[in-house]
Design a protein that fits this description.
The chain is mainly α. The chain has two domains: 47 residues, Arc Repressor Mutant, subunit A (Orthogonal Bundle); 172 residues, Tetracycline Repressor, domain 2, CATH 1.10.357. 71% of the residues lie in helices and 0% in strands. Helix 1 crosses helix 2. The radius of gyration is 19 Å and the shape is elongated.
Length: 227
């Protein structure tokens, strides 16, 4: 039990420090000091800083992606082979994440902020790791969206998915940037209001008219391997 508590404390501390300072700027000395453990304990449980970073993501991403796939399985079974509504697909993929982001006591909010920062500034190591973690999930949801929106090319769906990920990441990071340009105070403490606003925004973007592109300008977005 003591070992489990120590491991959990190290993960909680690392998650918090990575969110505040980033992966590269956070040192093992900072982690061990804040977690009140020695370096030997970190090495015993994780072996290296890279493995510690992986475990920080795994302990919540595994549950998050399992829930997404579970809900998608349920909806597709109920649909009996018919296409799902785009709103249903978005609510499953992004809704589960937004609900996690509303969990301040259980650490979900802190983790989703970390994930949001990681999307915007991923290191090569983290990008490769997340690509593996998300591969099956992205494939399933992309297929569901293509089936739900037969008039939208698969390439365009990937771009829109990329933009939606950015919108979610920005939203869960807080409204600090918005406060700089808004005269009135904005309250971002209501997770239900944030959920309603963001889902409405993303659904509108998903259903937007196709863009007019110059010949040869449409290329496969690299984000398909980095989300």
């Amino acid at each position: 039990m003591a070992e489990i508590d120590t491991r959990q404390r190290i993960l909680d501390t690392a998650e918090s420090l990575f969110t505040e300072y980033g992966f590269e700027a956070t040192t093992m000395r900072q982690i061990t000091g804040a977690a009140a453990v020695n370096l030997a304990a970190v090495n015993y449980h994780f072996g290296s800083k890279e493995e510690l970073i992986r475990e920080v993501f795994r302990r919540r991403l595994t549950w998050l992606n399992q829930q997404r796939l579970k809900e998608l399985d349920r909806l597709e079974a109920e649909a009996g082979g018919k296409p799902l509504k785009p709103s249903q697909i978005l609510e499953v993929f992004f809704g589960v994440a937004l609900k996690m982001a509303a969990d301040a006591k259980g650490g979900g909010r802190n983790f989703m902020r970390l994930l949001g920062h990681t999307y915007s500034k991923p290191s090569e190591f983290v990008r490769g790791f997340l690509a593996e973690e998300y591969a099956a999930v992205i494939s399933r949801f992309r297929a569901a969206l293509i089936k739900a929106l037969p008039g939208v090319p698969g390439e365009e769906i990937l771009w829109r998915f990329h933009f939606m990920l950015g919108a979610m990441s920005y939203a869960i990071s807080g409204t600090d940037a918005l406060h700089m340009v808004a005269e009135d105070a904005l309250d971002d403490a209501d997770p239900e209001a944030l959920y309603a606003r963001l889902m409405s925004f993303m659904l509108g973007g998903l259903r937007a008219p196709l863009p007019t592109l110059r010949a040869g300008s449409a290329k496969q977005p690299r984000i398909s391997k980095a989300v």
